[in-house]
Amino acid sequence: MAEHQNMNAKTFFRELKRRNVLKVATAYAVIAWLVVEATSLLLFGHEERSSAMTALIVIVAIGFGVILYISWAFEATPEGMKRTANVPPDAVLPSWSPRRFAAFIILVAALAASLLVFDLARSRTKSATPQATVAP
């Protein structure tokens, strides 16, 4: 079996690329960043913000491991999801073109970066305005 042969770094990375694990990891990381930034903006000013953000980051981290396992163990074929062991290595599988994938990643990263800049700008303007003090 091909899966039980010794795998050096070159064949390991070739197999990661063939199984689209690197694309899935990149897309998940960028989308997770976008979700964390959007959630941070939505929860601005709430007392539970830090605990909710911690929970979200833990969920995203666990999801990252799960999605990497799924992308390694399964292939998306026209007939549905199949175990990678049941798909021939030379099978033609549907995939995004590199250009389309790069455009998607750049678009989502730009959206996440704009949310980050908005959050930073908003926090600076909040700290720049003097807080009203109430005399006892």
Write the layout of secondary structure elements.
Layout (H helix, E strand, L loop, with lengths): L8 H10 L2 H22 L6 H25 E4 L2 E4 L14 H31 L8
Antiparallel strand pairs: 1-2
Across the major sheet, the strand order is 1-2
Cα distance spanning the termini: 79 Å
| Structural class by sheet pairing and helices | mainly alpha
What kind of sheet is the major sheet?
Answer: 2 strands, antiparallel
Number of helices: 4
Strand content: 5-15%
Number of strands: 2
Mean pLDDT: 79
Low-confidence stretches: none
Q: What is the CA-atom radius of gyration, in angstroms?
A: 21 Å
Helix content: 55-70%
The outline comes out as elongated
Order of helices and strands: HHHEEH
Brief summary of the model shown:
The chain has four helices and two strands, in the order H-H-H-E-E-H. With 136 residues, it is mainly α.
Describe this entry's structure for a reader.
About 65% of the residues lie in helices and about 5% in strands. It has four helices and two strands; from the N terminus they run αααββα. It has helices at about 10-20, 20-40, 50-75, 100-130; strands spanning about 75, 80-85.
Keywords:
two-stranded antiparallel sheet, 136 residues, 4 helices, mainly alpha, single chain, 2 strands
